[in-house]
Amino acid sequence: MDYIVRATTSNKQIRCFAITSREMVETAREHHNTSPVCTAALGRLLTGGAMMGVMMKGDNDILTLRMVGDGPINGVTVTADSKGNVKGYVGDPSIIIPPNYLGKLDVGAAIGYGTLTVVKDMGLKEPYDSKINLTTSEVAEDLAYYFASSEQVPSAVGLGVLMEKDNTVKQAGGFIVQLMPFADEETINKLEERVNSIKSVTDMLEQGMTPEEILKYVTDDEDLEITDTIPTQFYCNCSREKVGNAIASINKKQLDEIINDGKEINVKCDFCNTDYVFSVDELKEFRDDK
Questions:
Q1: For the chain, which terminus, N or C, has the lower number of CB atoms within 10 Å?
Q2: Please, what sign has the CA dihedral across residues 282, 275, 72, 156?
Q3: Cβ–Cβ < 8 Å for 43, 13
Q4: Strand 128-133 and strand 85-90: pairing?
Q5: If pLDDT is split at 50, 70 and 90, which confidence band does 222 have?
Q6: First-to-last CA distance in the chain?
Q7: Would you call 68 helix, strand, or coil by DSSP?
Q8: Cβ atoms of 29 and 40 closer than 8 Å
Q9: Nearest 5°: CA angle at 219, between 57 and 179?
């Protein structure tokens, strides 16, 4: 089962999160029938988004991450809540491009140069909205840059998705390690040195390391204090009723035009790719209820 751990170390000078997300990313791949590079792009942002979601405190808080660049993937969008639920989609899930110079899936080229927008809806009058330029478009580095530039929190972010030969997801997971404002120079230097020595998240997952073990390795601290363990999953809260309510909210003139076409309509949820079909008679009921 996928889960997130939250922990502190070095006398609470460092807070950190780690996740195993293979089932989450594989569920997303199944819903959207994504190509390998699209699975990697979406999987990394889902993994990062899930950890960022549980950083929020309110039960109804919602986080949206949107990476939009000039690459062929045509953007990646992820939404997460504070309870470990996450969903997302890519603009064009079928894109296939050559590997990068290291022979890896070229997520950076698939997304391209553009922007990362982070929206936090915490029930206030206006949601918190921040936009930064993408750095590498490889996702992890872009989230680290967001934390440093928009939240003034120095952070190390590692994300990884490893595919099987049959294009299913073999491994997925990640970590976020953040320095608190009162962190001393020794702690900062030790963490920087350790993070720079890490090869990849998928290497650690392939060795069978759990999120707890990943954090102990990344922070080089066996006495890490685990403060929370949170189940996480790909979950879309769309429903036929919600889609029906959205259709019913269309103004009467537009509804009449749809009804006069005499054809059933098909509404697809972007986040989970579920189809909802409504007959002409159902559309007439929506209109009459007005």
A1: N
A2: positive
A3: no
A4: unpaired
A5: confident
A6: 45
A7: strand
A8: no
A9: 50
